[in-house]
Amino acid sequence: MKARDRWFDVLGVLAGVALPPLFYFKGKQTALPLFMGALFVFFFYGMVTARELKDSAIDLAFKALGLLYIALPLAYLAPLREMDNGQWWILFLLVVIWSSDTLAFLTGKLMGRHRLAPEISPKKTIEGAIGGLAGAFIAAFLFNRFAGMGMGLKGVSVLSIGIGFIAMIGDLAESLLKRSAGVKDSGSIIPGHGGILDRIDSILFPIPLLYYFLLCQSLRWGG
Q1: Which pLDDT belongs to residue 1?
Q2: Three-state SS string across 190-209, please?
Q3: Which residues pair with 124 in a beta bridge?
Q4: Fewer CB within 10 A of the terminal residue: the chain, N end or C end?
Q5: What pLDDT score does 68 carry?
Q6: Residue 174 CB: number of other CB atoms within 10 A?
């Protein structure tokens, strides 16, 4: 196994940490310049350090993936928060995803028979996935009704099923990365639960999904 380049890791973390707050304080127009600047720094660092080309290329790919896969989706929380009832929509998103994860786990545990993606995540089942989608819809329906989010049944159905499905893909995407790296968890910072990425993997992709859904609704109705 190749030795880790800690300074390169620090550069990647700093770039990822900087993106969401810049997105919030400076607006969406900062995302592309920051991303391009970070890519330049990554390539420059990879060229001037005495490392094998293969190692530099792999690290460059993962640093860029980290920005696109983790930092950029999280950055969408800023414009999402600035929308009408933004704080409620963020809570809506979390409740729907957590409900989907919980019901998927329970359904899979009690009724799971058919494997969903055995090579990526052996414990996930088709029955669990269906239960997760049902959990997403139920949570969205109840939240929309009692919090007065103003969506009709069609909007609740489309948005909840979309969030539930995309959240599952996000969970499987992180499992794919872990399988390819030959590790069980993304880290050990949370005892018994793995790394932080293991806790937020299903949230990442639905954040921009919800933002653009609400943006399209706003443009449609002239809000």
Answers
A1: 44
A2: ECCCECHHHHHHHHHCHHHH
A3: none
A4: N
A5: 86
A6: 22
User: How far does the chain reach from its first CA to its final CA, in angstroms?
Assistant: 54
Radius of gyration of the chain (CA): 19
Query: In whole angstroms, what is the distance from residue 169 CA to residue 68 CA?
Result: 16
Q: What is the pTM of this model?
A: 0.85
pLDDT of the residue at 27: 75
pLDDT at residue 157, rounded to an integer: 95
* Interior/surface letters 30-44, b for 16+ CB within 10 angstroms, e for the rest: bbeebbeebeeebee
* Spatial contact of 164 and 133, defined as CB atoms under 8 Å apart: yes
CA–CA separation, 146 and 189 (whole Å): 36
| Rounded distance between C-alpha atoms, residue 26 and residue 112, angstroms | 47
Residue ranges in the chain whose pLDDT is less than 70:
1-4, 50-51, 53, 181, 183-195, 220-223
User: At residue 166, what is the residue type?
Assistant: I
